[in-house]
Amino acid sequence: MGLAADDEYGLEEGVELPKAQVFYSQYEYVVGYYGVERFVETQRQDGHTQRFGHPQTVYVTDYSSVDLELTTDGYPTADSGPAWTNGEDAWFVHGSDARTPSGETPIPFSQRDDATAFADAHGGTVLAWDDLLDERFEIDDASVVRDRVEGQHQDADERVDSARELRERPVSIVVGDDTETIQEAIEQAPENTTIVIPEGEYEETLEIERPLTLRGDGNVTVRGDGTGSVITTTADRTAVVGLAVTGSGSQGSQRGGEAELPGTENETGDWDETFERNYASGDAGIAVHTANQSLIEDVTVDSSVTGVLLRRSGESVVRNVTVHSPADWSDGHAGILAFRTPGVIEHTTVYDGRDAVYSHHSHGLVVRDNELEGNRLGIHLMHTSDALLGNNQLREQSNTGIYIMTGPERNAIVNNDIRDTEQALSPGGSDSYVAENVLEGNNVGLQISATNSIYERNVIAGNEVGADVQVLLPTNQVLENDFVENERHATASSGPLRVWTDDGSGNYWQGAVGFGDGETIDRAYSPTDPVDQRLHRVDGTPTLAQAPALEALAGLEGTVPGMRTGSIVDLAPTCEPNNPELLERTAWQDRAWPCDSAA
User: Fold this and answer.
1) Quick one: where's region Disordered (predicted)?
2) Collapsing DSSP states into helix, strand and coil, what is residue 381?
C-alpha cells in the first residue's frame, strides 16, 4: 500500500523507495507499505487494530546497507537492493529532502552514524522509533477526497464559465455571405473571433489551427467523407458550438501506428507514447488535439468510431453533447475519450457505445450530470486519479456502469444512479470516496476492489448481489449504507474478516434482527453468515437467529475476531435506513423494515 500502480511503474531504474513490512497479530499475511509514514498514519485509523490486530514486528528498509543518493526529485537510489532491519531498532531521518511520489518520507538506517551523516547532507532530524510514531504526516487518504468534493465542483464550475466565454467572441465571418465553405472561413477569420454557420448541411472535413469559435445558427450539419475525423482542432481555446456532426471515419486507428500525432514531434517513443499513438490516434466526429481550454457544446455526433476525442487538451469542456454510437458497440470505441486531458464532461448523453466515457491518464477529470444508456461500459477510467464522478445516471450498460481500474488513487464517486446493469459500480485503486450512490436492479450493485477507501451512505437495493468484496486487505470503511431487497446483501472472496462498522456506525440491513435502542441493533449482523444472509428472504429465520445458542455465538463473535464465522460482520447494524431520501428513489422503500418489526 501507499503508492499508485502508475507511480510504481514510472519509477526510474535504481530508485529504492523506503518500505515497511508489518506482521500483525490477527492477519495471516505480511502487509507492505511504500513509505514508513504510510504505516505510521494507517495504524492510527479507526478500526485498524480491530481489522488487523496489533503490529508484532515491523521491518523497514535499511539504507545503512547500501550507497544512498537522492535524485533531483528527492527519490532515494541505491547501488543494490537494501536489506531489512527491525523498525524498533532503526534510526529515521525525518524532514529531509527525501521524497516518494506521494510526498515527504522518513529515511531509515540501522546505524545512527549513517542517519546523522544523511541528515547533515540532506537536512532533517534523526528520530528513534517511538519518536517517529508520535509524528504526524499529511497523507491524501479517502477522508481528504471526501472533504474536497465541493471544492472540485466549484473548480469545475469556474472552468466551465471560462470555456463558455468562447461563445461570446465577436462575429468575423458568416459562411455563405463572406465565404463559400466553412474551411475557407477558418483560414480567413482573425484569431479569437466567431464564424457563424447558417442552417444547412455542409459536406466538409475541417481543420482548425488557430483559436476560433464555430457557431451553428439553426439546424446545421457538418458531414465528413467517412475517411477521417470530421472536425480536428489543434489550437488552444477553440470552440465548436451548436452543430450536428456525422460521417466520421470507419476505422478505429485511421492515422496508423506510424503516423505523427499533433504535439508528439519531440517524443522519445517509449511504451506510453506508443500506446498513445496507437490508442488516441483514431478517427472521431470531433478530434481535439493539444488544444487546451477548448469548448465543445450543444453538439450532436453520429459516430462510426469515437464521438469526441480529447487528447492533451487540459481544462477543456464538453457539455450538452449527444453521441449516437454504432448499433454494434464492437464497431466503435468511446462516446467521449479523454487522453491526458483533465477537463469537464457534463450534461452529455451517450447511447450504445463501447465505452460511453473513457479516460486515460486524465488526473483530475470531472464527469458529472451525464445520462449514459445502453453502452458496454458507462464510465471507464484507466490510470486516472483525483477524478470526480458525480450525479451521473447510467442505465442498461451491458458490462459495468462505472469501472475504475489500473491502480489509481483518490477518486470521488458520488451521487450517481446506476440501474439495470450487469455490474453497477467497480472502483479500483486506493484512497477513494464512494458515497450517496443509488445502485438498483443490477446483477452486482457494488464490487469493492479499492483499498483504504470510504464507502458510505449508498443505497444498494434490488440487486442479485448487493456488494461483492474482492479486495484482500480489510482496510476500507463501510458505514451508513442501506442494503434492501437484494437476493444476497453481500458476498466476499476468500480472505480475512472485514468489519463494516466504523466508530460505532454500522449499516442498515433489511432483515437484521435483535433488540434496538431506536438507532442500532444489539446483535451483530453478518451478510455472509448462512443464517443471517437469509433473514430477509425466508420465513422463520428470524426466530432461528434469536435462538439462545446462536445468540450466545453471535455475542462471542461480536467480541472475538477469530471466532466470527462470516468474512463480513457489522457490529452495530442500524434500526432504520440511513438514507431515506435516496431510498425513496427506488422501488423498495416499503421493504425497509425498522428493527422493532424485523423480529
Assistant:
1) 246-271
2) strand
